[in-house]
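Repro:
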Amino acid sequence: MQKNLPVMMAIGCFMAFSLISFAQRADSLNFDGYCINPWASGSIVAVGVVSNVIGQPRLNDRPPLSDATLQRVAASRVNSFDSWALRQDAGRRGEAHETSDIMLYSSLFLPAALFLDKEIRHDWAPVALLYLEAQSVNTMLYAWGPFGPTLVTRYRPAVYYEELPTEGRNFGGMRNSFYSGHVGSTATSTFFTARVLADYHPEWGGKRALLYGIAALPPALVGYFRIRALRHFPSDVLVGGLVGATVGILTPEIHTRCHGKVGFSAIYSRELKSLGLVCRL
């Protein structure tokens, strides 16, 4: 993940607590479509900021790779699907890296375009808080999740390029190839934007499916440049996109379902002689 994300998430935390203060007169922010508890969502954002500040340095400051490890990795085989990452122009990796960063940072602010819509603009506070929650969940999954670099060690493609200088291949962050955090954050942003637009405009009907097709383009481009930058394999990019898209879509979905649809009740059956709880979704 990018080194400046902790700063951006800290800004997000400030925004989240501002929204909480804005809504402190009520227990939740309710409006057509979503139900948001500002205290719960704000807490998720705060935990996301803290976990990111702690998790990112921990991932990037791993022990350097030894010369023996570099030789072993360079001589190892890569599956055919990912082998494309080993056929790139290593001399242009810096340019591709910079391009992917620019695209990522730009995508993080994409949901702001939602407020050009009059209906969504009216609900700017809960929608903004919901987006911060989605990015916080995405960040926590990357830094601490079972499919991220915390538990999955995979060497970045640059490690395989013996023509590159050793200092560009042996630092600890080279173990963090799986999965792509850049693509995950971009997909969270674009698919969140698409989902909110679809929720606010049911009258668009089947045309709403086009929103998700458009939402897939920025993560795909970011993934392409991450591969060109020798930072990730195609499978890293694919998984990052799936994780980010899932978070971007499911975060609004969960808050949609809780809007007057979630409840618990106790039941007793004479036939079964049992007592239980029922969750209604």
